[in-house]
Specification:
This protein folds into 3 domains: 142 residues, Restriction Endonuclease; 149 residues, no CATH class; 130 residues, no CATH class. Helix content is 33%, strand content 20%. It starts with a helix and ends with a strand.
Length: 493
Amino acid sequence: MANSDLVASARELRDRHSEDGSNDDSSAYSERLKDLVQDRLVESNPDATVERTSYFNHSAIPDFVITWGSSRYPRGLYLRGSYAAIIAASDVQTNRHDDPIFMSLDEAQDFQLGGEEYSRSRIKSVVAEADATLVTDLGAFAAATAHVQTSEQAPLHSLVRQNFVRGGKGLFDGEQVEQFVSQLDGDDDRSVLDDIGAFFTESAQGEFQRAAALIDLARSTEHIESLDIAHLLRGRLTGEEVRTLLPWMLANSVAPVGAPLWRLVGSLLDLRLLESESSSLRGVDLSRLIETNLDVFVATRATAGLNVEVEDQGLEGEPVPGPRWEMVDTRLARLERSSAVRFALLGTRLKRSSSGSFSAPRWSAIKPRLADHTLARASVYGIDEVITVDSRRGRSILDYLDQVIPQGSADDYFVEDVTVRLANASAAGDERDVKVDFTSRLIVTDAAVTLGSMLELVGLLGELNPELDGDETAAPDTAELADDADGEESADA
């Protein structure tokens, strides 16, 4: 909804209510008006949860409670009929410590109250008493949050607009809107930082300075180490920054894989944030960022697929010649030709294939691929026995299986899953046990493992190794074997 649409809709709603003249419709009018405001709040703050309270105007309870991500500091928004109502109720003084937003439905600022004359300058002086309080009106709010297509040329401009509700402060009315919008009309991102102190809290200004520093780095050919920006590049990126800055940086920076720029960006976000912003990153080539941070980004699950249909990838066009990293649906995927390896930080985002189980590969085909790995557990089965073995005694599982599987019979045994013990598998360099399940084509771990470590195990999955698939590797039904308890052998290597 554009600026004029929001204001016009509110005015039309108010006029209909005035013409009706029935007090019985006051509640319905209020709810419809809140619908308009809530729609704009949601549209301009996609990261936020906008909770609508059930209280009528002029109460001590806000009409909306807005929370951003995991922030413990929500912001209340109070709708008021006029600026006079805000002043009369001493709203600013009463709620000054909660960083609230007071929105007048009327733009008039000249009025009498208690025999005293009020004007814009006097309202501004009252608002100035509460440093982080935002006092605005519907028209100014609509203009400040209006969607603008500037992200490709000036990403900081879009970021500033997206932060108006979360970080705005002071009196923001028609006069301020004119100054604010003029700052966003130029092509130079840096110009918007000159006068934003009057509009935003210190916290929001810090985010803008960090965003500007990242933009400068993406445009610069200088070494990051030579730039005095370390104090700006702390904490984690917000959802707004990921949506607005990351696609622009990847599209405009010439920094290659391994460049300090991508290492720096990798320190400011994680896979969870990429997953939460996946809809905004659709089609964005993340390869340089991901390849640079394979030892930093972590996941708990991975699955591999061969002959993946383009529609299944959630992409348009032909299969990617790759390798290329993209967000596919809500998951990170490494695409190459007609194959895809998907990664997820949460198990709920990546589950067992809906097409059912796959055939277990022959032990003779998998064993050579395990030679460079340390096994913590393995489960193999033959025609009339199941062997499950773990390494609690510190002995090599491969050596043990060589002893218990009759010589020359390896082709008659199949493997359902193995657990590989990886050294330096976490971002902190810790050891991790990772299960490779061949019948579900999943790699799963209880504790997060780096993407690089996950990729080491992808080659074990049959779908990326066609020689492990096919009729010649078809395994017997394990259900028949599982019923025979006498045929199962369990051992510690």
